[in-house]
Amino acid sequence: MVVLVYCHCINFLFLRAIGHCGRRYELFETVEVNAPNGHIILCAKKDSVLVPIAKVATYAMGKVAMYPQSELRQLQQMKQNARKLFDRNPGNEQRLSHLKKLRYNYERSKSMLKSLQKVGLTDSENDINNIVSHCGRKSYDG
To answer: Which of 12, 35, 65, 90 has the highest count of CB atoms within 10 angstroms of its CB?
Structure first.
């Protein structure tokens, strides 16, 4: 069982696991990381591993925003049917590439959610914490 514990005295958030014998195991602490763009990202930290919690809560749980389907379809049709018009604006190819990435992210996010649901995970705080704690584990060969 994983529980969220906020420690007021040191201003850290810890995730702890309670084993069947009642022992508590610290899974990771959360830290704020300053991104180059000035945003503050809340991450789970275990040793040198940082996992952005919001990415798991959004991307893995199928919450990526829908891409603009009509604009993508329109640009694809323009590229096929009116190639000269499409090529006149160099921004069209960049925009088409960006929209394809958005579509990929959306479809991948939905696929991840289906995979997680197949193994019994849901969009709950507990399951997100379990996923994040698993991402912070080191893998050993042998």
So the answer is: 12
Give the pLDDT of residue 142. Answer: 39
E-only strand ranges, the chain: 2-7, 12-18, 24-34, 40-46, 49-52
Confidence of residue 136 (pLDDT cuts 50, 70, 90): low
Cβ pair 68, 101 in contact under 8 A: no
Residues 6+ apart with CB under 8 A from 65: 106
> 98 — phi, psi (to 5°)?
-65, -45
Contact 43, 51 (CB under 8 A): yes
How far apart are alpha carbons 86 and 63 in whole angstroms? 32
* pLDDT band of 4, cuts 50, 70, 90: very low
Write phi, then psi, for 96 (nearest 5 degrees): -60, -45
